[in-house]
Amino acid sequence: MEARAEALAAAAAVDEARLWSRQMAMAEIGATAAGGVNRAALSDEDRRARALMLEWAFALGFEVATDAIANLYIRRPGRRADAAPVVTGSHLDSQPRGGKFDGAYGVVGGFEALEAIQRAGVETERPIDVVAWTNEEGGRFQPGAMGSAVFAGVLSLEDQLGLADTDGVTLADALTETLASTPGLPQRPFGHPFAAYVEAHIEQGPRLENEGLTIGAVTGIQGLYWYAVEVTGAEAHAGTTPLRTRRDALKAAVAMVSALEELMADESDTVRFTVGRFECHPGSPATVPGRAFFTVDFRHPDPAVIERIRSRIAPTCEAHARGCGVTVRPLMAHAPLTFDADVIAMVEGYAETLGHPVVRLPSGAGHDAGHINHLCPTGMIFVPCERGVSHNEAENATPADLAAGAGTLAACLVDLANREQP
Amino acid sequence: MEARAEALAAAAAVDEARLWSRQMAMAEIGATAAGGVNRAALSDEDRRARALMLEWAFALGFEVATDAIANLYIRRPGRRADAAPVVTGSHLDSQPRGGKFDGAYGVVGGFEALEAIQRAGVETERPIDVVAWTNEEGGRFQPGAMGSAVFAGVLSLEDQLGLADTDGVTLADALTETLASTPGLPQRPFGHPFAAYVEAHIEQGPRLENEGLTIGAVTGIQGLYWYAVEVTGAEAHAGTTPLRTRRDALKAAVAMVSALEELMADESDTVRFTVGRFECHPGSPATVPGRAFFTVDFRHPDPAVIERIRSRIAPTCEAHARGCGVTVRPLMAHAPLTFDADVIAMVEGYAETLGHPVVRLPSGAGHDAGHINHLCPTGMIFVPCERGVSHNEAENATPADLAAGAGTLAACLVDLANREQP
């Protein structure tokens, strides 16, 4: 078969029912009463999820491996055993009250692509790997996307080993326990070469659904910036202290959030501005708050817009301090990144060929692909999720959309695995 | 001596050093490391404070009594043993991190007035009582001003007995223990007649100090209204959810507080508007809050202004709900009250005669006098406190100001206790 025909044959071999049944089997591990999933990184549930992946891999005769941060690799060998693999995957851990598909789809759907390639009888030059990255969500150990960050050399494993969860269990101990649950797996070094990386994921936003589209050819990941704003005023008696003599930390913080809303105003609705935490102290109805605290989460894909807004965040807060002290502390800064142009075009092209309505769009959320993008040509495939709801037990997707994503992924993997320089 | 001369003789007998020394002795009971006082109602510290009052009362031969909610009465008899007493007093309990003077000054300063009357050799027609009302602060058992409310028939004691503090101790048990610590005291009925009531208190606001005044002739207590505002939106992913499709409970709550600030705007700076509690959930920086909650504390002395603003609070919140649900629940409503015109004039007149710069002013805070005002002619005497700071360990006042207040009080008590119908 010609290379493109082989890619399409692999896509055609994706089995919607088999994929859905595997998604549901995975969702039973850590299932919550409200229909979601609670599968913390390196927990018993995470280990059961890994065991299920290995069971499926062994049944199809695939090769398996791990590394020192327990990233899990499932390989379908290529003709050239020593060639760098084409890799797909995502993560098996979830938010504490997360959904069935965030992360799990990228692993289970990646495995479906691998099985489809196998069942279509397609041979590839390069090996194709499905990876389950450790601790993407960061719910138990921070930061998230830890497995891919350590793999990519963005974080050092040694620096993370002492991290403790809220029960005092260290990452070192949790890793030891998890690695012991999959004894005898070959261990790979961090940063070993990838020929290319394509990650499938639910969109986690409403655009594909709203526009009646099936596939998103992801162009990159928008920039992400976190700030902590601390406002210090003076506690005072609510009944006796005239408003003009107060230094009211709550009202200053409210004025800051209002002013930041104006700063972030955007006709195109591209800016993402969220205040997710907001506290005031001492928190008594009859006491003027002496201290307030809030977080700013700001995201945008365009470096010029980012630069303009970032430079105004602290001055805007200071301009509305109303006599209070204010400190604006950056907590996180991830510049926007762009995926590989050829991979984006390939995702778009195969989606069209397979008859799936497709659009190019940036990712609003961070993903493991963001770290791997530094190492090799990288892209992502989005499929719709119901009402854009994610990080929520109500997260949902349709079997047909998941299968469309897996088919598009299978085609890309075969194509990339047959290129000399993908 | 003529009645007015006797009143002034009593005032002249107030001893600044003795009063200060007693204030400092009282402040040692429950003293905090930061210089404040932690003396919860019906606690061991409260019982020690009562014991100290009784020790001073016995040393001067005064009569003592209590009632079923452990309000403590110290009496200097009058010529007419069966006449209704003229009463002064306040409370001995404090905020958890309270100051030395809030409440304690009204009891200790009242006792100083009683001793001054005694030492001046002034006899009165009516008895004069100093009362320490139980649980004014409401820090351990809610509501506050409980002792005076039960005395005045505003609350029933039976309804309060089952209240539990955060350790699970009931009011009934705490009362039993407190009453057992002062065995053998005669027990008075609730609501027994008072001829008049005058309460001395620190201002708890900055006005007297700012205007260089010594005495406030308190005209009444401003109206006090509490609301709980609950905002219900939808949790969403901070990176992926376009702002236009969000129902962001935090931003709606911020818009409501801003709009309430505009509603409360007041050139005369008489309105008191405080948001003392403000929360949002789930409180994760990367999650759009699905729920927010805040309290409104609104106070004003003028019924017309109160009516206008109260009628606009819920509509103002609803107008800024931004697609979220909002409920505005009244938590507390105390109409403004006016003290007795003769008592106000008497406080003002004696302050002037005694050479203390005086002003008529409303009370921003609630006081036991608010309940007793329903029973008999009532007034209050304010003295300055440093920078208006109260409900705070830094609360402070000067010995001279406290003595000026006790002198004015002594004169009023003698005058009232010699009137047939004060």
Structural overview:
- Two copies of one chain form a homodimer.
- Chain A is of the alpha+beta class and 422 residues long.
- Chain A folds into two domains: 3-222 and 336-417, Zn peptidases (Aminopeptidase); 223-334, Alpha-Beta Plaits (2-Layer Sandwich).
- Chain A has helices at 3-12, 16-27, 44-59, 104-119, 146-151, 157-160, 171-180, 207-210, 249-264, 303-319, 341-353, 368-372, 399-417; strands at 63-66, 72-76, 86-91, 128-133, 196-202, 215-221, 223-232, 236-237, 272-274, 278-281, 287-288, 291-300, 325-334, 337-338, 358-363, 378-383.
- The longest helix of chain A has 19 residues, at 399-417.
- Chain A is elongated, with a radius of gyration of 23 Å.
- The first copy, chain A, starts with a helix and ends in a 5-residue tail after the last helix.
- The model of chain A has no long low-confidence stretch (mean pLDDT 96).
- At the A-B interface, β8, α9, β9, β10 and β11 of A face β8, α9, β9, β10 and β11 of B.
Task: Give the topology.
2 copies of one chain form a homodimer.
Chain A (H helix, E strand, L loop, with lengths): L2 H10 L3 H12 L16 H16 L3 E4 L5 E5 L9 E6 L12 H16 L8 E6 L12 H6 L5 H4 L10 H10 L15 E7 L4 H4 L4 E7 L1 E10 L3 E2 L11 H16 L7 E3 L3 E4 L5 E2 L2 E10 L2 H17 L5 E10 L2 E2 L2 H13 L4 E6 L4 H5 L5 E6 L15 H19 L5
Parallel strand pairs in A: 3-4, 3-5, 5-16, 6-15
Antiparallel strand pairs in A: 1-2, 2-4, 6-14, 6-16, 7-12, 7-13, 8-11, 9-12, 10-12
